[in-house]
Structure formats: C-alpha cells, structure tokens
Amino acid sequence: FWSNIWFSVEARPCAGRLVQCACRPIQQGMYTSDDHPTILQSIPGIASIQAQVAALETECGYRQDATASGPDPKDRDNADAWVPRSPWMNRLTGVHPFNSEAPLSLLKEHGFLTPPTLHYVRNHGVVPKLSWHTHTIDISGLVHRPMKISMAELVRLPTVTIPVTLQCAGNRRKEQNLIEKGIGFHWGCAAASTSIWTGVPLRALLEYVGMKEKGEGANWINFDGPEGEVPLGDTKYGASHSREACMNPARPCMLAFLQNGQLLHPDHGYPVRLLMPGYIGGRMIKWVTTLSVTEHEGTNHYHIYDNRVFPKHITSKEEATKHQIWTDPAYTINDRNINSAIWSPAHCEKLPLSVETYEVSGYAYNGAGRPVNRVEVTLNGGRTWRPATILRFEQPSEYGMCYCWVHWRADVPTRALRACGEMAVRAWDDSQNCQPERPTWNLMGMMN
Questions:
Q1: How many CA atoms lie within 13 A of 266 on its CB side?
Q2: Residue 441 has what DSSP assignment?
Q3: What gap in Å lies between CA 4 and CA 46, rounded to an integer?
Q4: DSSP states of 378-430
Q5: What angle do CA 81, 83, 87 make, to 5 degrees?
Q6: Which range (212-216, 342-346, 436-440) has the least confidence?
Q7: Annotated catalytic, 306?
Q8: Which is the catalytic residue, given 307, 339, 373, 442?
Q9: Is 123 marked active-site?
Q10: Distance, CA of 230 to chain centre
Q11: Given 75, 306, 366, 402, which residue is catalytic?
C-alpha cells in the first residue's frame, strides 16, 4: 500500500540535521584467507568485466562503505565473528542470525548502487565458511552430464554483468505488523538494495551439463545451499524454479560470483549464489551447493513453508495446513510487487520554515522486469497527487526489461508541509497498475 510518513515542522532559521546518532581470537572463514587478487585474475575476461563495472560505478557516483573495516564486535561471541560487517546496520532479530538493513540515511547517501556491507541481509542461520578453491556445485538429475563443477570450471563458461535490485518479500513488514502482528520480524523499508552482478547464465550452465528435454520430464531446477545452514527441514535452504523461468532469455538468471566487480561478500553468498532478476530475494539461494533437474517441483522446507501470501482469513500456520494451501501455487511469491518508499524527510525530522521548498524523495521498484512509469506524492490523504521526477539509472534490456529500482524526488512548498500531518507516495507501472491505498494484511507479512 502507499508508503506513509509522519513528521514535524519547527519554525527556526537553522537547518535541521540528521545525527547518526578487547575480543577473543576469531576463527577465520575461507573468504578472509582466500587470495582475492589471484582468484580475480584467474577469471577469464576479468579486465573487461571490471572495466564495465567501473564505468557504471563512475556514472552512478558509486562510493565504498567507509563504515565497515572488518568484523563487527557485536558478533564476537557467535559463529559469524569473522564476517566483515558495518556496525551501522540495523539488526532486526537480535545479534544472530544476521538479518539487517541499513539506516535509510545511508541507503540514500550511497545512491543507486549499494556497497555489499550496506546491502540488506537475510540469513536464516550461520554464514558457511566456504573456499573458492574447494567449493563445488553437485549437478544431478535429468541431465546428460551430471558433475561436480568447481568454481574454476564454472567461470570459464559465458558470463553476463548487469545491475539488479534485490528485495526481501518482507520489505516494509513492520507497517503490517502494526496492524496485527504476523509471524515475521519487523523489516523497515530498507530491505532493498542494488548491486552490479556478474555470473554464468543458467541457460549456459544447463546447456553445458546437457539438461534433458521437457518431454523427458526436465521441468524443474532445484537449488540448495549447504547442509547445516538452517535449523529446519534437511538443514539446507532451497528453492525450486520452473524450466521456463530459468531458461527465459529475457530474464538473465545466473549463478553469480561477483558483486560490484569483486568476489561475493560472505553474507551475499560467497563464492556463488543464484540470482533471478525481478524475483524476491528469498528465491535466490546463497552459497549454492547442489543443483538438480527434476520432473516435479522441489519440496525443500523453506521453498514450501516460506514466501507465501495467504488470504486474510488464514491467521495461523495450522489454518494454512487445514486449508491445504502450503503447496498451492496461487499463494507462491516469485516476482516482487510494485512498491515505493519515502526516505526524505525522515520520520520525526525537523524542517526549517526559512526555506521555501523541500525536496521529498525516495525509491520505487517493480517486479517481472516491468518498469516504474510514474511516482506521485500526496499531502492530503490522496485527494490530490503531485507528480514526482523519476531518476533512472538503468537502460532497458534488449527485451525492454528493467530490473533495478528508480529514485524519485518532488519539490514541495514548505508551507504545504506545515499544514500536512501525513504524506504518502505511490508508484504506477506501464499497465497502470498502482499501489493500493490500504494494505492487505497477511500472516507472513509479505509483499506490503
């Protein structure tokens, strides 16, 4: 639904400011001991890839995260003590597992491209300690050439490099939980981030291993992380995707191994992760360890019992089981929904009346490769809307697809803000689909 914000106005001439407001030995993960420069130089075409990334970073004004210089002391007593992290990330489920989003002020400050240590993180358990040199992906099922493929062999296949916005299906869940607490934790509106990803297209990989024809039953591709990553099911986090989605030339699905021209950060899947542009983050498996081609959809615990939007009358997991809807594809989330958020002014920010106008701003995104066509802001509960200027950083693909967020801004008279107790933003796509005025509460707090 519309993204709302409440704020106060203070009549004083000075400008308001937003103020952001000895450890035991650490057992290192392989990411910290692997020789990154040597690995990068071993990747065919790395100079061209990094030149492409550098050009886009320069165009977008990309800046590294200055807040992350190593592990966060808050992790000193858990299994992630070795993982480099920014101490400014807002941890939403306690210290561990690491589920976090950046302060909106930092997300806004860094612009279109997000540094890995400010990119939102959804971890269900410990970060696996994997090495580029020893990690393999076990590929099996309905393929002519089952194999365990190493990273060295994988990166010799064709690659693609594109910017993609990732977003958790629970982004802005806190607003739904204020209506009625569901079973998910409080995501704010910073569970969305954008990076430049480089990887091997799934089409190229599946052709390399000889995926069988659809008539032979090769209908689903199942991806799993390593054993022991998560507490439930078979202790592997997994997802199952249709053949059509994985092989669609208009959607550059890939096994990604670079983020912003560098090796993946451990929180984002080092050394390799699944990337499905336009999908929610929960369907993009990190630390991919197994890939299988099957006739029927996979049954991984997290594929079935997570990332669903239930009808409003389903108020418990038991009710969902009673109505037999866990495996009903009508409730599955793959592509994300159209959404927008305000990051300026911030909640409770004080705005000086000495300036005539104030620039309201934020972001918007859409799923399935559909563009955001317009963004509008209201100061009077939706009776009238002010058009916002959209800042686009991404060129549509050869298929007309867009997989990144846009930023937007609108100059609003300060006197109008003074008379306004609440503002809201809404986004539209190219089919005139619009964010609804009111939220549709659901048990998992998804797709707000």
A1: 25
A2: -
A3: 44
A4: ESSTTSS-EEPEEE------TTS---S-EEEEEEEEHHHHHT-SEEEEEEEET
A5: 85
A6: 436-440
A7: yes
A8: 307
A9: no
A10: 19
A11: 306
Note if 34 is an active site residue: no
- Cβ atoms of 124 and 230 within 8 Å: the answer is yes
Whose CA is closest to 327, among 362, 297, 356, 372? 297
- Amino acid identity of residue 80, one-letter, is D
Structure tokens at 249: 């030339």
Which residues face 273 on adjacent strands? 256
Annotated catalytic residue within 75, 80, 99, 168: 168
Q: pLDDT, tens digit, for every residue of 150-193?
A: 999 999 999 999 999 999 999 999 999 999 999 999 999 999 99
Gap between the Cα atoms of 287 and 266, Å rounded: 9
User: What's the pLDDT tens digit per position in 197-207?
Assistant: 999 999 999 99
pLDDT at 18 over 80: no
- 27 pLDDT band (50/70/90 cuts)? low
Q: What are phi and psi of 296, to 5 degrees?
A: -110, 160
The DSSP annotation for 226-266 comes to -TTSSSSTTS--EEEEEHHHHH-TTS--EEEEEETTEEPPG
Tokens of 433: 């689909």
Contact (Cβ atoms closer than 8 angstroms) between residue 118 and residue 100: no
CA distance to 37, 74, 210, per residue, from 88 (Å): 28, 11, 46
Six token digits for residue 193: 């981030």
Residue 329 tokens read as 């594809």
What's the angle, vertex CA 168, arms to CA 165 and CA 173, rounded to 5? 130
